[in-house]
Amino acid sequence: MINKTLLLRLISSIGITVAASTPSWASNAVNIYSARHYQSDDKLYAAFTKRTGIQVNRIEAADEALLERLRSEGTKSPADVLILVDAARLSRAATEGLFAPSDSESLRERIPENMRSSKEAQGYAWWGFSKRARVIVYNKQRFSGSAPQSYASLADARFKSAVCTRSAAHPYMLSLIASQIEHRGESATLSWAKAVVGNFARPPRGGDTDQIRATASGECGVALSNTYYLARLMRSSKPEDQEVIRKVGFVWPDQDDKGTHVNVTGGGMVKHAKNREAAMRFLEFMASDEAQQVLADGNNEWPTVPSVKINNPALDAMGSFKADKLPIATIGARQSAAVKLVDQAGWR
Ligand code: FE
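^ thats the input. predicted complex w/ fe (iii) ion below
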Protein backbone atom coordinates (compact mmCIF):
# COMPACT_ATOMS: atom_id res chain seq x y z
CA MET A 1 0.00 0.00 0.00
CA ILE A 2 1.36 3.36 -0.94
CA ASN A 3 1.56 6.16 1.57
CA LYS A 4 -0.52 8.76 -0.23
CA THR A 5 0.87 11.77 1.62
CA LEU A 6 4.41 10.71 0.88
CA LEU A 7 3.52 10.05 -2.71
CA LEU A 8 1.99 13.49 -3.16
CA ARG A 9 4.99 15.10 -1.49
CA LEU A 10 7.33 13.25 -3.82
CA ILE A 11 5.26 14.32 -6.77
CA SER A 12 5.27 17.98 -5.85
CA SER A 13 8.97 17.92 -5.04
CA ILE A 14 9.82 17.06 -8.62
CA GLY A 15 7.33 19.45 -10.11
CA ILE A 16 4.64 17.09 -11.31
CA THR A 17 1.09 18.32 -11.15
CA VAL A 18 -1.60 16.04 -9.80
CA ALA A 19 -5.07 16.21 -11.30
CA ALA A 20 -7.45 18.40 -9.34
CA SER A 21 -9.31 15.65 -7.51
CA THR A 22 -7.25 13.86 -4.91
CA PRO A 23 -6.44 10.38 -6.20
CA SER A 24 -7.46 7.50 -4.00
CA TRP A 25 -5.19 4.70 -5.08
CA ALA A 26 -7.94 2.16 -4.64
CA SER A 27 -7.96 -1.33 -6.04
CA ASN A 28 -10.87 -0.83 -8.43
CA ALA A 29 -8.85 1.82 -10.16
CA VAL A 30 -6.33 2.36 -12.88
CA ASN A 31 -3.34 4.62 -12.24
CA ILE A 32 -2.22 6.54 -15.27
CA TYR A 33 0.97 8.47 -15.89
CA SER A 34 0.25 10.72 -18.83
CA ALA A 35 2.29 13.18 -20.82
CA ARG A 36 -0.94 14.48 -22.34
CA HIS A 37 -2.47 17.45 -20.59
CA TYR A 38 -5.60 18.51 -22.38
CA GLN A 39 -8.95 19.47 -20.86
CA SER A 40 -10.60 17.01 -23.22
CA ASP A 41 -8.79 14.14 -21.51
CA ASP A 42 -10.87 14.76 -18.36
CA LYS A 43 -13.95 13.92 -20.40
CA LEU A 44 -12.24 10.80 -21.63
CA TYR A 45 -11.38 9.48 -18.18
CA ALA A 46 -14.87 10.25 -16.90
CA ALA A 47 -16.35 8.28 -19.80
CA PHE A 48 -14.13 5.30 -18.97
CA THR A 49 -15.23 5.34 -15.32
CA LYS A 50 -18.87 5.62 -16.35
CA ARG A 51 -18.57 2.67 -18.68
CA THR A 52 -16.51 0.36 -16.47
CA GLY A 53 -16.90 1.56 -12.88
CA ILE A 54 -13.10 1.73 -12.72
CA GLN A 55 -11.78 4.91 -11.19
CA VAL A 56 -8.99 6.76 -12.97
CA ASN A 57 -6.13 8.32 -11.00
CA ARG A 58 -3.62 10.18 -12.99
CA ILE A 59 -0.38 12.05 -12.80
CA GLU A 60 0.36 14.39 -15.66
CA ALA A 61 3.84 15.63 -16.38
CA ALA A 62 6.27 16.11 -19.22
CA ASP A 63 7.43 12.87 -20.84
CA GLU A 64 10.94 12.94 -19.43
CA ALA A 65 9.72 13.61 -15.88
CA LEU A 66 7.36 10.63 -16.10
CA LEU A 67 10.11 8.32 -17.36
CA GLU A 68 12.44 9.51 -14.61
CA ARG A 69 9.74 8.88 -12.06
CA LEU A 70 9.08 5.35 -13.31
CA ARG A 71 12.77 4.54 -13.27
CA SER A 72 13.20 5.70 -9.70
CA GLU A 73 10.01 4.03 -8.46
CA GLY A 74 10.89 0.68 -10.01
CA THR A 75 8.76 -2.20 -8.72
CA LYS A 76 7.06 0.10 -6.20
CA SER A 77 5.53 2.30 -8.88
CA PRO A 78 1.76 2.74 -8.57
CA ALA A 79 1.53 3.34 -12.33
CA ASP A 80 -0.53 0.91 -14.42
CA VAL A 81 -0.59 2.76 -17.72
CA LEU A 82 1.96 5.09 -19.30
CA ILE A 83 0.93 7.51 -22.06
CA LEU A 84 3.65 9.29 -24.02
CA VAL A 85 3.98 11.55 -27.02
CA ASP A 86 6.08 10.59 -30.07
CA ALA A 87 7.71 7.38 -31.26
CA ALA A 88 11.06 8.56 -29.94
CA ARG A 89 9.84 8.56 -26.35
CA LEU A 90 7.62 5.48 -26.65
CA SER A 91 10.42 3.39 -28.03
CA ARG A 92 12.86 4.71 -25.46
CA ALA A 93 10.52 3.65 -22.68
CA ALA A 94 10.12 0.27 -24.38
CA THR A 95 13.88 -0.19 -24.81
CA GLU A 96 14.36 0.59 -21.13
CA GLY A 97 11.83 -2.11 -20.27
CA LEU A 98 9.32 0.26 -18.66
CA PHE A 99 6.36 -1.37 -20.44
CA ALA A 100 4.82 -4.82 -19.92
CA PRO A 101 3.56 -6.74 -22.99
CA SER A 102 -0.11 -5.87 -23.52
CA ASP A 103 -1.54 -8.17 -26.14
CA SER A 104 -5.24 -7.85 -26.89
CA GLU A 105 -7.31 -9.06 -29.79
CA SER A 106 -9.40 -5.91 -29.95
CA LEU A 107 -6.33 -3.66 -29.89
CA ARG A 108 -4.73 -5.75 -32.63
CA GLU A 109 -7.91 -5.50 -34.67
CA ARG A 110 -8.33 -1.75 -34.27
CA ILE A 111 -4.84 -0.24 -34.21
CA PRO A 112 -3.06 -0.64 -37.56
CA GLU A 113 0.15 -2.64 -37.52
CA ASN A 114 2.36 0.34 -38.37
CA MET A 115 0.89 2.33 -35.44
CA ARG A 116 1.99 0.00 -32.63
CA SER A 117 5.21 -1.51 -31.32
CA SER A 118 6.25 -4.72 -32.98
CA LYS A 119 5.33 -7.94 -31.23
CA GLU A 120 8.70 -9.50 -31.94
CA ALA A 121 10.69 -6.78 -30.24
CA GLN A 122 8.72 -6.18 -27.06
CA GLY A 123 5.47 -8.16 -27.22
CA TYR A 124 3.34 -5.08 -28.01
CA ALA A 125 4.86 -2.68 -25.53
CA TRP A 126 2.70 0.24 -26.71
CA TRP A 127 -0.18 1.17 -28.98
CA GLY A 128 -0.62 4.39 -30.97
CA PHE A 129 -3.84 6.23 -30.10
CA SER A 130 -3.71 9.45 -32.09
CA LYS A 131 -1.56 10.66 -34.95
CA ARG A 132 -0.03 13.88 -36.24
CA ALA A 133 1.96 14.75 -39.34
CA ARG A 134 5.11 16.86 -39.73
CA VAL A 135 4.59 19.50 -42.41
CA ILE A 136 6.57 22.29 -44.07
CA VAL A 137 5.32 25.79 -43.36
CA TYR A 138 6.38 28.67 -45.61
CA ASN A 139 6.13 32.45 -45.79
CA LYS A 140 3.62 33.17 -48.56
CA GLN A 141 5.22 36.42 -49.59
CA ARG A 142 8.67 34.87 -50.01
CA PHE A 143 7.89 31.41 -51.33
CA SER A 144 4.41 31.32 -52.80
CA GLY A 145 4.60 28.93 -55.76
CA SER A 146 8.17 27.90 -54.89
CA ALA A 147 7.76 26.27 -51.47
CA PRO A 148 9.73 23.08 -50.78
CA GLN A 149 7.65 20.03 -51.67
CA SER A 150 9.82 17.50 -49.86
CA TYR A 151 11.94 17.17 -46.72
CA ALA A 152 14.89 16.62 -49.07
CA SER A 153 14.41 20.02 -50.72
CA LEU A 154 14.97 21.86 -47.42
CA ALA A 155 18.62 21.26 -48.34
CA ASP A 156 18.33 23.10 -51.70
CA ALA A 157 20.55 26.13 -52.25
CA ARG A 158 17.49 28.27 -52.99
CA PHE A 159 16.52 28.04 -49.31
CA LYS A 160 19.84 29.50 -48.13
CA SER A 161 19.30 31.51 -44.91
CA ALA A 162 15.58 30.60 -44.96
CA VAL A 163 15.18 27.35 -42.98
CA CYS A 164 14.05 27.24 -39.33
CA THR A 165 13.51 24.23 -37.10
CA ARG A 166 13.30 23.56 -33.41
CA SER A 167 16.31 21.80 -31.89
CA ALA A 168 17.02 18.48 -33.59
CA ALA A 169 17.62 17.01 -30.14
CA HIS A 170 13.82 17.15 -29.73
CA PRO A 171 11.92 13.88 -30.31
CA TYR A 172 9.79 15.39 -33.13
CA MET A 173 12.95 16.16 -35.11
CA LEU A 174 14.70 12.93 -34.13
CA SER A 175 11.74 10.89 -35.36
CA LEU A 176 11.65 12.73 -38.69
CA ILE A 177 15.40 12.26 -39.11
CA ALA A 178 15.07 8.58 -38.11
CA SER A 179 12.50 8.15 -40.88
CA GLN A 180 14.90 9.76 -43.36
CA ILE A 181 17.66 7.37 -42.24
CA GLU A 182 15.30 4.45 -42.80
CA HIS A 183 14.32 5.64 -46.30
CA ARG A 184 17.60 7.06 -47.61
CA GLY A 185 20.35 5.53 -45.51
CA GLU A 186 22.70 7.17 -43.03
CA SER A 187 25.22 8.82 -45.32
CA ALA A 188 22.62 10.47 -47.59
CA THR A 189 20.71 11.66 -44.52
CA LEU A 190 23.89 13.08 -42.98
CA SER A 191 24.70 15.05 -46.16
CA TRP A 192 21.12 16.30 -46.21
CA ALA A 193 21.20 17.29 -42.54
CA LYS A 194 24.45 19.22 -43.02
CA ALA A 195 22.96 21.09 -45.97
CA VAL A 196 19.78 21.91 -43.99
CA VAL A 197 21.96 23.29 -41.18
CA GLY A 198 23.80 25.32 -43.82
CA ASN A 199 20.45 26.80 -44.87
CA PHE A 200 19.45 27.97 -41.39
CA ALA A 201 18.00 31.45 -41.02
CA ARG A 202 18.89 31.28 -37.32
CA PRO A 203 20.10 28.67 -34.82
CA PRO A 204 17.30 26.32 -33.68
CA ARG A 205 15.27 27.67 -30.80
CA GLY A 206 11.72 27.48 -29.46
CA GLY A 207 8.98 25.00 -30.26
CA ASP A 208 6.99 24.38 -33.45
CA THR A 209 4.62 27.31 -32.83
CA ASP A 210 7.64 29.63 -32.54
CA GLN A 211 8.81 28.43 -35.97
CA ILE A 212 5.38 29.16 -37.46
CA ARG A 213 5.32 32.65 -35.94
CA ALA A 214 8.86 33.41 -37.13
CA THR A 215 7.88 32.22 -40.61
CA ALA A 216 4.89 34.57 -40.61
CA SER A 217 7.09 37.48 -39.51
CA GLY A 218 9.57 36.75 -42.31
CA GLU A 219 12.49 35.94 -40.02
CA CYS A 220 12.22 32.41 -41.41
CA GLY A 221 11.19 31.50 -44.93
CA VAL A 222 10.37 27.83 -44.37
CA ALA A 223 10.00 25.74 -41.23
CA LEU A 224 8.84 22.40 -39.90
CA SER A 225 5.83 21.92 -37.64
CA ASN A 226 3.48 19.26 -36.38
CA THR A 227 0.01 19.67 -37.84
CA TYR A 228 -1.79 20.27 -34.54
CA TYR A 229 0.20 23.45 -33.84
CA LEU A 230 -0.93 24.79 -37.19
CA ALA A 231 -4.51 23.66 -36.56
CA ARG A 232 -4.46 25.29 -33.11
CA LEU A 233 -3.53 28.64 -34.67
CA MET A 234 -6.16 28.14 -37.36
CA ARG A 235 -8.84 27.61 -34.70
CA SER A 236 -7.66 30.48 -32.50
CA SER A 237 -9.87 33.54 -32.30
CA LYS A 238 -6.96 35.82 -31.37
CA PRO A 239 -6.34 38.41 -34.10
CA GLU A 240 -2.56 37.92 -33.87
CA ASP A 241 -2.95 34.19 -34.51
CA GLN A 242 -5.27 34.82 -37.44
CA GLU A 243 -2.64 37.20 -38.82
CA VAL A 244 0.01 34.47 -38.55
CA ILE A 245 -2.24 32.03 -40.43
CA ARG A 246 -2.87 34.58 -43.19
CA LYS A 247 0.86 34.94 -43.80
CA VAL A 248 1.86 31.28 -43.97
CA GLY A 249 1.10 28.42 -46.29
CA PHE A 250 1.91 24.78 -45.70
CA VAL A 251 2.93 21.77 -47.77
CA TRP A 252 2.37 18.05 -47.21
CA PRO A 253 5.95 16.92 -47.89
CA ASP A 254 6.91 13.93 -50.03
CA GLN A 255 3.55 13.41 -51.73
CA ASP A 256 5.34 12.13 -54.86
CA ASP A 257 7.55 9.93 -52.74
CA LYS A 258 7.02 7.98 -49.49
CA GLY A 259 4.44 10.37 -48.07
CA THR A 260 4.44 12.83 -45.17
CA HIS A 261 6.09 11.77 -41.91
CA VAL A 262 3.50 10.74 -39.32
CA ASN A 263 3.95 10.18 -35.61
CA VAL A 264 1.73 9.10 -32.70
CA THR A 265 0.85 9.59 -29.10
CA GLY A 266 0.44 6.22 -27.53
CA GLY A 267 0.53 4.18 -24.40
CA GLY A 268 0.94 0.79 -22.86
CA MET A 269 0.78 -1.14 -19.62
CA VAL A 270 3.59 -0.37 -17.19
CA LYS A 271 5.99 -3.22 -16.39
CA HIS A 272 5.14 -3.33 -12.68
CA ALA A 273 1.42 -2.53 -13.06
CA LYS A 274 -0.64 -3.82 -10.13
CA ASN A 275 -4.09 -3.32 -11.72
CA ARG A 276 -3.38 -5.30 -14.86
CA GLU A 277 -6.94 -6.10 -15.85
CA ALA A 278 -8.02 -2.48 -15.39
CA ALA A 279 -4.98 -1.36 -17.39
CA MET A 280 -5.95 -3.62 -20.30
CA ARG A 281 -9.52 -2.38 -20.20
CA PHE A 282 -8.26 1.18 -20.25
CA LEU A 283 -5.98 0.55 -23.24
CA GLU A 284 -8.86 -1.12 -25.08
CA PHE A 285 -11.10 1.81 -24.21
CA MET A 286 -8.53 4.19 -25.72
CA ALA A 287 -9.09 2.45 -29.06
CA SER A 288 -12.91 2.74 -28.82
CA ASP A 289 -14.78 5.08 -31.18
CA GLU A 290 -15.69 7.40 -28.33
CA ALA A 291 -12.17 7.71 -26.92
CA GLN A 292 -10.57 7.95 -30.35
CA GLN A 293 -12.74 10.94 -31.21
CA VAL A 294 -12.06 12.80 -27.98
CA LEU A 295 -8.34 11.97 -28.02
CA ALA A 296 -7.81 13.11 -31.57
CA ASP A 297 -10.03 16.15 -31.60
CA GLY A 298 -8.83 17.42 -28.23
CA ASN A 299 -5.41 18.13 -29.72
CA ASN A 300 -6.40 18.53 -33.39
CA GLU A 301 -5.00 15.12 -34.31
CA TRP A 302 -6.33 12.14 -36.24
CA PRO A 303 -7.54 8.84 -34.76
CA THR A 304 -5.24 5.87 -35.34
CA VAL A 305 -8.27 3.60 -35.74
CA PRO A 306 -9.03 3.99 -39.46
CA SER A 307 -12.82 3.60 -39.21
CA VAL A 308 -13.22 6.47 -36.71
CA LYS A 309 -14.28 9.78 -38.21
CA ILE A 310 -13.83 13.16 -36.58
CA ASN A 311 -15.39 16.50 -37.31
CA ASN A 312 -12.64 19.10 -36.91
CA PRO A 313 -12.88 22.28 -39.02
CA ALA A 314 -9.13 22.98 -39.01
CA LEU A 315 -8.21 19.44 -40.01
CA ASP A 316 -10.95 19.46 -42.65
CA ALA A 317 -9.50 22.70 -44.03
CA MET A 318 -6.05 21.12 -44.19
CA GLY A 319 -7.42 18.37 -46.40
CA SER A 320 -6.18 14.84 -46.97
CA PHE A 321 -2.66 13.67 -47.69
CA LYS A 322 -0.55 10.63 -48.41
CA ALA A 323 1.05 9.48 -45.15
CA ASP A 324 4.35 7.69 -44.87
CA LYS A 325 3.54 4.04 -44.10
CA LEU A 326 6.79 3.44 -42.27
CA PRO A 327 6.03 1.58 -39.02
CA ILE A 328 6.26 3.95 -36.04
CA ALA A 329 8.22 1.22 -34.24
CA THR A 330 10.89 1.33 -36.97
CA ILE A 331 11.21 5.08 -36.48
CA GLY A 332 11.63 4.39 -32.77
CA ALA A 333 14.32 1.82 -33.42
CA ARG A 334 16.39 4.35 -35.40
CA GLN A 335 16.55 6.90 -32.58
CA SER A 336 20.14 6.34 -31.52
CA ALA A 337 21.32 6.61 -35.13
CA ALA A 338 19.36 9.87 -35.42
CA VAL A 339 20.92 11.28 -32.24
CA LYS A 340 24.41 10.50 -33.54
CA LEU A 341 23.68 11.98 -36.95
CA VAL A 342 22.21 15.20 -35.57
CA ASP A 343 25.36 15.67 -33.54
CA GLN A 344 27.61 15.06 -36.56
CA ALA A 345 25.61 17.55 -38.62
CA GLY A 346 25.77 20.21 -35.90
CA TRP A 347 21.96 20.41 -35.90
CA ARG A 348 21.44 21.32 -32.24
FE1 FE B 1 3.75 18.85 -29.29
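The chain has 17 helices and ten strands.
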